[in-house]
Structures are given as structure tokens and as C-alpha cells.
Amino acid sequence: MKVLCAFLVWCLLLVLCWPLAVLALVLFPLIWLLLLPFRLAGAALEGVLALVRALFLLPARLLGHRP
After folding, report:
1. How many domains does the structure of the chain reveal?
2. Single pTM value for the model
């Protein structure tokens, strides 16, 4: 659904101002490549935080607490 909305907005931009739509089409892959390291760092940080949370909840799990 998100992709369809983005495509419709791009089509509207193409009708209203085609040079800007073409520029957006060219710049999108470059911006995606620039943001890729931040996405990878976010995934790694999420994994580390999940590990820390599991370590803090380990004593409760060993004592038999179930959520």
C-alpha cells in the first residue's frame, strides 16, 4: 500500500512538474545507498539491545516467571 501511494504521488508530480519527478527518480537510489549504513547500524543496535534485555530478564525466567 505504501509503494502504491508513493507511485501515485510520483505520477502526480510527473504531471505537475516533470523535471522534478525525473530528478527524484534519479536521486532516489543514491539517497537509498547513502542511508544504507544507518539502517545496518540500527539493526545491529536493535540486536544488542535485545541481548541486554534478555540478560536482564534471565533471572526472572529462571525463577519461572512467564509473561
Report:
1. 1
2. 0.59
